[in-house]
């Protein structure tokens, strides 16, 4: 089993990188809000201080201005400028258009509008009895530099804490992610890659504890159950295969037996059990080849049942089949093991005798003829039927080329035996037939001719 490709990245790293993009953006925005709030609070605090200074100096300035005591007025204004929160002082006429006194650093025109200046403006009131008279306007000037200077430490602390919080959270999330996600996933992948054969996941105790109750734990349980089902299916499949193999073996044996039976039927006569024409020809070709090489004699005997058509016509085909089986049994008992005996077709039989002389073949043929004619066949109607054979003998000669040459001579002598009165054997072209009792043949009701 090939191993899965190595991952190019950790899912925990990828996850937390994407999460921290949003987190860092939110942290920066929150830090800016905190810095702005700090600056705004510093501005409000500075504005409050200017209001306090207003209450401290407005009576004395108003008295000096009412008395037109310029030295005292200037001295008070210089003293005010020396206060850190106040950068400059300007006193205007009651209409606020003409400048009476100007002390300290004042912003350029429009600086407050642009947001760089901070001005606290209030009226100078002279009170005498029940009379209140506005005698001028005073402006206390400061700037946001004061706010920044006062808030610098607090802003630095906010920025430092924000950066430290981000780094610590990044480290915490990354460490926890590795422990709860990256390491369990890596171990699960390694276990799955090495699972040969298939088996449930075997994870370390730390990993089991880390994923217990999580989606990864559910994934492990689902995988183990899947493996159990696969193993159950494999076991069932193995059982089916074993059963199928056993059935295949049984069917194979049955097929082999059927083939053997078919092979036997292809080479055996189904009625008598003797070899059929095909089997006889194959055996004859082998014996002829041996006779050619060794020069040993080979004799063919052809025989058939006398008046067999009349037997079928008078007694029926069942008796005819009985007569054929009877003759086949006599042939089996009369020949040697090395001899080939076969049913050539119908009521015709052949015998192939290797390593016998013509005289020995004639004696064998007579033995067969006498064995067949020496008994009776009982018919279903109670009659007894005597069966006889006519036989023709031919010996393999030097000029013979094929089995047909030998067979033609033997068949021609068979017909001569038929013409000589049946129940006899013709061995050559000159010898008289060897025969049994012609009267016995005629008493069986056999007419002349084949």
Give an overview of the whole structure.
- There is one protein chain.
- By secondary structure, the protein is of the alpha+beta class.
- The protein has 2 domains: 11-168, Beta-Lactamase (2-Layer Sandwich), CATH 3.30.450; 277-443, Alpha-Beta Plaits (2-Layer Sandwich).
- The protein contains 12 helices and 12 strands.
- The chain has helices at residues 11-66, 70-81, 111-114, 144-193, 205-211, 215-267, 277-294, 308-315, 317-334, 358-373, 403-419, 438-443; strands spanning 88-92, 99-104, 117-128, 131-143, 298-305, 340-345, 348-354, 376-378, 384-386, 389-395, 424-426, 434-435.
- The strands form 3 sheets. The protein has a 6-stranded mixed sheet, sandwiched between helices.
- A hairpin with a 2-residue loop joins β3 (117-128) and β4 (131-143).
- The longest helix has 56 residues, at 11-66.
- The model is unreliable at 111-115 and 436-450 (pLDDT under 50).
- Residues 426-450 are annotated as: Disordered.
- Pfam families: GGDEF (PF00990).
- Its EC number is 2.7.7.65.
- The chain crosses the membrane at residues 20-40, 155-174.
Counting DSSP H or I runs of 4 or more residues, the number of helices is 12
Give the overall silhouette. Answer: rod-shaped
- Which structural category fits the helices and strands? alpha+beta
Q: Looking across the biggest beta sheet, what order are the strands in?
A: 6-7-5-10-11-12
Quaternary organization: single chain
Termini gap? 82 Å
Task: Spell the H/E element sequence.
Answer: HHEEHEEHHHHEHHEEHEEEHEEH
How big a fraction of the residues is strand?
A: 15-25%
User: How many DSSP-defined strands?
Assistant: 12
Q: Please identify, by name, the CATH architecture of the largest domain.
A: 2-Layer Sandwich
Mean pLDDT: 82
Indicate the low-confidence ranges by residue numbers: 111-115, 436-450
Q: If you consult CATH, what is the topology of the largest domain?
A: Alpha-Beta Plaits
Describe the largest sheet: 6 strands, mixed
* Rg (C-alpha, Å): 68 Å
Highest-level CATH class of the largest domain: Alpha Beta
């Amino acid at each position: 089993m090939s191993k899965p490709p190595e991952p190019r990245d950790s899912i925990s790293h990828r996850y937390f990188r994407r999460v921290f993009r949003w987190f860092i953006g939110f942290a920066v925005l929150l830090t800016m809000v905190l810095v702005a709030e700090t600056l705004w609070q510093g501005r409000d605090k500075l504005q409050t201080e200017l209001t306090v200074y207003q209450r401290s100096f407005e009576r004395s300035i108003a008295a000096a201005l009412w008395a037109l005591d310029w030295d005292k007025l200037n001295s008070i204004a210089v003293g005010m400028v020396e206060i850190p929160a106040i950068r400059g002082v300007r006193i205007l006429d009651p209409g606020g258009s003409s400048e009476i006194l100007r002390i300290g650093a004042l912003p350029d025109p429009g600086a407050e509008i642009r947001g760089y200046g901070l001005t606290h403006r209030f009226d100078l009131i002279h009170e005498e009895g029940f009379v209140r008279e506005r005698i001028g306007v005073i402006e206390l000037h400061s700037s946001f530099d004061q706010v920044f200077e006062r808030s610098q430490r607090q802003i630095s602390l906010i920025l430092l804490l924000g950066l430290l919080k981000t780094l610590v959270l990044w480290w915490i999330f990354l460490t926890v992610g590795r422990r709860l996600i990256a390491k369990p996933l890596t171990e699960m992948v390694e276990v799955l890659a090495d699972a040969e054969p298939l088996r449930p996941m075997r994870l370390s105790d730390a990993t089991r504890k880390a994923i217990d109750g999580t989606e990864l734990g559910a994934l492990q349980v689902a995988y183990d159950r899947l493996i159990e089902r696969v193993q159950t299916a494999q076991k069932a499949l193995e059982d089916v295969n074993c059963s199928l193999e056993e059935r295949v073996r049984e069917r194979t044996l049955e097929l082999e037996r059927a083939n053997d039976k078919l092979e036997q039927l292809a080479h055996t006569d189904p009625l008598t059990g003797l070899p059929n024409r095909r089997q006889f020809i194959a055996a004859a070709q082998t014996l002829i080849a041996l006779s050619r090489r060794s020069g040993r004699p080979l004799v063919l005997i052809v025989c058939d049942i006398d008046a067999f058509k009349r037997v079928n016509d008078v007694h029926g085909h069942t008796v005819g089949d009985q007569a054929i089986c009877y003759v086949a049994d006599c042939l089996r008992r009369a020949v040697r093991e090395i001899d080939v005996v076969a049913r050539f077709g119908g009521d015709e039989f052949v015998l192939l005798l290797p390593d016998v002389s013509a005289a020995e073949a004639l004696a064998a043929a007579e033995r067969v003829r006498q064995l067949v004619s020496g008994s009776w066949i009982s018919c279903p109607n109670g009659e007894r039927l005597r069966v006889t054979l006519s036989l023709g003998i031919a010996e393999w000669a030097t000029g013979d080329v094929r089995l047909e040459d030998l067979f033609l001579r033997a068949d021609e002598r068979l017909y001569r035996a038929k013409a000589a009165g049946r129940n006899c054997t013709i061995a050559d072209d000159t010898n008289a037939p060897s025969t049994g009792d012609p009267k016995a043949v005629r008493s069986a009701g056999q007419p002349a001719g084949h």
